[in-house]
Amino acid sequence: MLLSFLSNIFSHLFFLFGYISNNNLFPEPLSKTEEEYYLRRYFEGSKEARDKLIEHNLRLVAHIAKKYSNNEQEMEEMISIGTIGLIKAINSFSSDKGFKISTYASKCVENEILMNIRATKKQKAEVSMNTVIGTDKDGNDMALVDTLDSDVKDTIDTIYNSIITDQIKKYINNKLPEREKYIMELRYGLNGNEQKTQQQIADELGISRSYVSRIETKVQNKLKKYIKWE
Predict the structure, then answer these.
(1) Are 132 and 164 in the same domain?
(2) Do residues 44 and 131 share a domain?
């Protein structure tokens, strides 16, 4: 199964580089009617329809890849990486996703490129959405997140925040001593508890506010290490 998947990926990459080397334009995006037709056929099992959906979304890949490229060589590399994300998007897309196929594909392409950026720069520094990657026309610092289209940014932020929230809840529920767990549940309104201030928690437990603050800071540092490791 893995070999078949990789074979499909590379066949599309060769097709893609054919467009680049011949200086031809990428195919025009499908119209709404055409997209619905090929999606219907794809869900019925048509490989040809699947290939059409990939082929006519290559402009989307090129558009996203351009934001992360400074020269032609980087552009080709980002397009090849983004195309893998596109193929994954088409392979996993279903009508109940709740996204338009272009929105879903954008997220997958962007994620694939960002994962590659993180991997290649792992030895130098941790890459995040807030990493400064250059300056704008006014000389202000420009972060990676600033280069994303708002729709894509919102989608990625929503998914990222959901993952981080789940990791935090998992850690607090399963890893913390009972006292620290209870303080964090009250501090952030977790597990059905009402959110309270440090002073309110201190009054309830008969301890100082500064002690509650130290516990909160201690847990936050634990969470940072845990989430980074995850």
Answers:
(1) no
(2) yes
Write the burial class of residue 99 (CB in 10 Å: 0-12 exposed, 13-18 middle, 19+ buried). middle
What is the identity of the amino acid at 7? S
End-to-end CA gap in the chain: 27
Bridge partners (DSSP) listed for residue 142: 134
Domain that holds residue 186: 152-229
Q: What are 29-75's pLDDT values in tens digits?
A: 888 899 889 999 999 999 888 888 988 898 899 899 988 888 887 88
**pTM reported for the whole predicted model:** 0.45
Q: Do residues 19 and 94 share a domain?
A: yes
Looking at the fold, whether 164 and 196 belong to one and the same domain comes out as: yes
Q: How many domains does the chain have?
A: 2
Q: What is the dihedral of CA 44, 45, 51, 52, to 10 degrees?
A: -20
pLDDT tens per residue, range 121-161: 664 444 455 656 566 666 777 665 565 555 555 555 665 56
